[in-house]
Specification:
Blueprint lengths: L8 H10 L14 E2 L2 H5 L4 E4 L6 E2 L2 E2 L3 H10 L3 E6 L6 H11 L8 E3 H10 L5 E5 L13 E4 L4 H5 L3 E4 L7 H13 L4 E3 L5 E4 L2 E4 L1 H12 L4 E2 L6 H8 L10 E5 L2 H10 L3 E5 L10 H8 L5 E3 L3
Parallel strand pairs: 1-16, 2-5, 2-14, 5-6, 7-8, 7-9, 9-10, 10-13, 14-15, 15-16
Antiparallel strand pairs: 3-4, 11-12
Helix pairs in contact: 7-8
Length: 303
C-alpha cells in the first residue's frame, strides 16, 4: 500500500482555509521576525519541533537538522518533538529518528497517537473501525476491540465508532463506504492525525485530517481531533518537561500555519515557521500568512 501524493501545496493551503472555522481561534499575531534559527532559539528554554517538514521529509533527514539539535543540547536547551504522527507505534518512530541520526529520548517525543489513546482511555469500551495500513503493527491499539477497515462494506456498519490514524493505503472507495455508513447511523469519529497533508520525498501525502474533514462535509458528523493544533497533545508534551517553564519561554517550530503555528500560539508559546521544506514550499509565505490571519513570531528557511 502506498500514500496518495496527489495534493499540491496550493490546493492543500486552500483546503486549510476552507476548514479553518473548525480549528481553534487565536489572535492574528504581529509582524514576523526573520533571522538565524539558532540565534532565535537561544532566547527560549524549551524548543519543540514538528517532524515532517522541519526535521525530516518522509524517511530523509533535512540537511543540518541533526547538527542543530546537537547544538541546542550543547547550549543547555531542552528539546522535544510534537508530531501529528499516529499511524505507527512510538517504538517505530523512535527507531526512525535514530536511523536518521537524531538522539531524542522517548520522553522527548510526543505524538498525536498518544493524545488519541489518552482520550480513548476515558471512554466506555466499544467496537472501533480503524483507518490504518493492515500491514502495520497496531501496537497499543491491540488492547482495543478493533477492526481494520477494508473493502468489505458490511464491516463499517458493525462498528460503534471510528479511529482515523493512518491514511497509507486508504482509498476513495473506503472513504465512500465510511461516509455512507455514517449517513445511515452517525457515530463518533476520532482523528489521531489532524494534518491534511504531510511532506514526503515525492510530494504531499493526504493524511487522516484530509479525509476527516471530507466526511464532516458530506455526513454532518463532526470528528474529534486529537493532535495539533488542538491542546491535548501540547499538554502531554509539557507534562514531560518542566511544567514550571512559562509558556512564553517555549518555542514551537513547524512548517504549517494551521497546525504548528496555530497550535503553538494557542498554547501560549512563541512560534517559528520553517518555509524551506514543508507544506508551504513554493508558495508566497507572506501572502499565505495574510490569507490565514496567522502570523508566526519568527520565519526561517530551515533549522
Amino acid at each position: 500500500m502506498t500514500q496518495d501524493y496527489g495534493v499540491d501545496p496550493q490546493a492543500a493551503f486552500a483546503r486549510y482555509l476552507q476548514i479553518a472555522d473548525r480549528l481553534p481561534r487565536t489572535a492574528a499575531g504581529g509582524l514576523a521576525e526573520t533571522g538565524v534559527f539558532t540565534d532565535i532559539a537561544a532566547r527560549f528554554d524549551l524548543i519543540l519541533f514538528d517532524a515532517y517538514g522541519v526535521l525530516n521529509v518522509g524517511e530523509t533527514a533535512i540537511p543540518g537538522a541533526t547538527d542543530t539539535i546537537a547544538a541546542l543540547r550543547a547550549a543547555g536547551k531542552a528539546v522535544g518533538v510534537v508530531s501529528n504522527s499516529a499511524a505507527y507505534p512510538k517504538a517505530h518512530m523512535m527507531a526512525r529518528y535514530a536511523r536518521l541520526g537524531f538522539d531524542f529520548t522517548t520522553s522527548e517525543v510526543t505524538t498525536s497517537r498518544e493524545a488519541l489513546t489518552a482520550h480513548i482511555a476515558g471512554l466506555p469500551p466499544c467496537r472501533w473501525g480503524v483507518m490504518i495500513n493492515p500491514a502495520v503493527d497496531l501496537g497499543e491499539l491491540t488492547t482495543l476491540n478493533t477492526t481494520v477497515l477494508d473493502d468489505r462494506a458490511e464491516s463499517y456498519d458493525a462498528q460503534d465508532g471510528f479511529l482515523l490514524v493512518g491514511a497509507d493505503g486508504w482509498t476513495d472507495r473506503r472513504q465512500t463506504l465510511l461516509e455512507a455508513s455514517l449517513k445511515r447511523a452517525p457515530r463518533p469519529v476520532l482523528v489521531g492525525n489532524p494534518d491534511l497533508v504531510a511532506p514526503r520525498e515525492t510530494g504531499l501525502s493526504r493524511e487522516p485530517g484530509w479525509f476527516a474533514h471530507r466526511l464532516a462535509d458530506r455526513t454532518g458528523v463532526m470528528p474529534v481531533f486529537l493532535g495539533k493544533p488542538f491542546g491535548q497533545v501540547f499538554d502531554i508534551a509539557l507534562d514531560r518537561f518542566n511544567r514550571a517553564i512559562p509558556p512564553a519561554r517555549v518555542l514551537m517550530v513547524g512548517d504549517t500555519l494551521h497546525t504548528d503555528i496555530l497550535g503553538g500560539a494557542q498554547a501560549g508559546f512563541a512560534t517559528a515557521l520553517v518555509t524551506g521544506y514543508g507544506s508551504l514550499t513554493g508558495l508566497d509565505v507572506g501572502d499565505a500568512i495574510a490569507q490565514a490571519g496567522l502570523s508566526p513570531d519568527f520565519i526561517v528557511p530551515n533549522i
